[in-house]
Amino acid sequence: MGVEIRVEGLTKAFGRQTIWQDVSLTVPAGEISVLLGPSGTGKSVFLKSLVGLLKPDRGHIWIGDRDLPYLPEHQLYETRKLFGVLFQDGALFGSMNLYDNIAFPLREHTKKSESDIRRVVMEKMDMVGLLGSENKLPGEISGGMKKRAGLARALVLDPEILLVDEPDSGLDPVRTALLNQLFIDLNAQINATFLIVTHDINTARTIPDNIGMLYRRELVMFGPREMLLSSEEPVVRQFLNARRAGPIGMSEEKDVSELEAESKMGLDVGTLPPIQPQLMPSDGRIRAAQHAPGAWCAAHGVTPPPGSFVDDLGRNWVEEWPRYVASQQAAAMHGGQPGHPGGAQY
Fold it and tell me: Which residues form the ABC transporter domain (predicted)?
């Protein structure tokens, strides 16, 4: 099972430039969380702070009972072993083939024999669909394969926390969708805590259990996906709708005169799009971290946007979910395999 990350009052600046300030959130253990935000809001800096590559100016990062910024070097080294990191470009060594790239953390941080290392590497390559590509160099493969190789390397030490920085960068929409499905499948298998930084709206709408958003050096909100996807916050609605109108500008936030001009022109951030069904594991199982569709909205008296939780086949998963759970439980009781819901979403 994954480890909870608890952030309290975190602040980071480079010289006079404050990146973000007083950020507090809890990333639940074993769940998939996504962090959104316009370019330049410090999302990657936040990930680097979580793993101890950058030290915040103030605040706390609790990994279990350890406060990461204040650990002595040897404890920081040990705590980092809880993490796997998938960097934006995969960060593969160009002179090593994929097998040696993926084996590198095992050779560097463990005393495993080469036979044990081979077993682990091949298992992780199988998990990400790279079997048969062991001898290829990074320069000989596609961007999507590089991402999967980087992901396999992030998994070889069996991390309890997986940090993922812009997995969609450099990928076409199809490869991004396939990678998103892989994250869901991996979470179902290993129950690790996932935190994914992304600009991709489809990723944010379909895979996480929780969503947060950084803007204007602050955390606008963080919580269950339905909370953000039903939010009336103008910055959230503008971002989800990819609208030109709204508080987000080309570089920083827009000033009052710009917003007034947009209002006079009749421009707005748009209505909230429907909340899409969340991706299901490929084999149809129910992840340990999954929540019933519409449960948060119902518990908090929020009416979701029209058309929410309806899949491409026209099924409303608020209504379908109890029947699906019952069918899975019945299959498990009789020793059968989990059924697939007829699509990769619920």
Answer: 5-241
